Amino acid sequence: MRRILDFLLGNRVRLLFWFYMALALVLTVNNNLFYKSSFLNTSNEFSGNIHLFFSGIGDYFSLKSENEFLQEQNRVFQERWANSIPELKNPLPLFDNPKTTEDSLYISPIRYTYTSGKIIKNSYNGINNYLTLSLGKQDSILQDMGVVNDKGIIGIVERSGTAFSTVQSILHSKSKINAKIKGSNYFGSLVWNGENPNIVQLTDVPNLAPIKKGDTIITGGMSSIFPESIPIGVISDIGLTEAKNYYVLQVALFNKMQDIGVVYVIKNFNSTAIKAIEEIENE
Amino acid sequence: MNKDSPLFLILRISILIVTQVFLFSKISLFGFITPMVYVIFFYVYPTHKNRSVLLTVSFLMGIILDILLDSLAIHTICLMSMAFLRPKIMRFTFGLNYELKSFRIQKTPKQQRYTFLLIVVFVHHFLYFSIEAFSISLIGLILKKVFLTSIATFILSVLILSLFSPKKV
Questions:
Q1: From start to end of chain B, where are the E strands?
Q2: What are the residues facing A177 on neighbouring strands?
Q3: What span, in angstroms and rounded, lies between the C-alpha atoms of A108 and B54?
Q4: Chain A residues near residue B26 by CB distance under 8 angstroms
Q5: What confidence score (pLDDT) does residue B169 get?
Q6: Nearest CB to B132: which of A20, A126, A166?
Q7: Separation in Å, CA of A92 to nearest CA in chain B
Q8: Cβ distance A217 to A230 under 8 Å?
Q9: Is A132's pLDDT higher than 60?
């Protein structure tokens, strides 16, 4: 007994180190595998409020540019409205409120709703980047909703807390988004190699696809997260995989990932129905 | 106020965390260099204090940084390793002087101090970026990041330390 005690006391620094190290390693691995279930992220109240406070200070400096941008966007919508076909001006038939419908196979006439929010913590330097959003479960933001702004896509909600959520940025090593080349039906997956925060890669496009530099890349609409034709970027460089059967396209993003303020979270009303159908297919 | 008192330590750590999260983490030189200046904690922390306390303090600091920066527990792992390795690095750079009870980093020659800081920064950054990428195929990217970020952190740290060091008469 004495010798055990002596051993423990004599090696207490080393034992303490290994104890803390094991704890940290468990947290890292757990987070990597089950990011959604862990406390180590910015969607909790503690870090959310701290980030909200500090981002609130910076907000005042961008008020003017934000204002001008909104005016410009308003002008575009006014113009589009004035030029649209009169029949389309009738609002969508709201025969029942989609929020109250619990039927899993119910197809809602309104397919997507947008909720506006703010990014209060941005990140673009690491290999796995997460953003913090000032919306949470109380604004009915749930996991796997798409996040976009006026210029293009930003990411997917990874975990939602009560008042804040974390968003897995498209600048993330595990991010994989269905995208296609505008004007054609060739699809690919959008990934990021960790190098330049302004350039992402479009892979899995067959080498038969007619492409050239400057072509626009948009979302493919093959997932229940993003609607079709949301802009992403333009092709800046064309390469091939080693086997030469698929393209690796470098895509320069429309968004400046370093400067993201107001964003919209997309809720797909039919995602439950789509998931239910997919489950039936898998059985 | 005594510079080694626990209150002063807590104040120092909170300042390091706040500046790291809200200032240095937002810097992105040439698109990818983000200095991690909080490693000067290992420079300013008193030398011959209880090592268990250093380990515990590093762990807590790492966890807070990780919660605020969404970096899994990578900062914690790096800080823990550095807290464990610090005496070894000190013995390597300062030699026998380090064994003396009256030893203080601030009283050693400039070259030794900066060598110590450089080693701490480099080892920390190497650990951080390797664990973050966790893939041998990204070794080129990791080395590029380690090398350039270390230089940026080192220069910033030296500037900050000289700003807050006591005046020499």
A1: none
A2: A190
A3: 58
A4: 122
A5: 47
A6: A126
A7: 41
A8: no
A9: yes
Classify residue B96 as exposed, middle or buried by CB count within 10 Å of its CB (0-12, 13-18, 19+).
exposed
Q: Is A21 in CB contact (< 8 Å) with chain B?
A: yes
CB atoms within 10 A of CB A80: 9
A167 vs A265: CA distance, rounded Å: 10
Q: Which chain B residues are Cβ-neighbours of A157 within 8 angstroms? A: none
Query: What ipTM was assigned to the predicted interfaces of this complex?
Result: 0.75
| Separation of alpha carbons A131 and A43, rounded Å | 10
DSSP A84: S
User: Considering only CB atoms, which chain B residues are within 8 Å of A124?
Assistant: 28
CB proximity A50 to B under 8 Å: yes
Residue-wise pLDDT for A65-87, tens only, equals 888 888 888 888 888 878 776 65
Distance from CA of B110 to the nearest CA of A (A): 30
Tell me: the pLDDT tens digits for A7-61?
A: 777 777 788 888 888 888 887 777 666 555 556 666 777 778 888 888 888 778 8
Q: Which of residues 244-263 of A touch B (CB under 8 A)?
A: 258
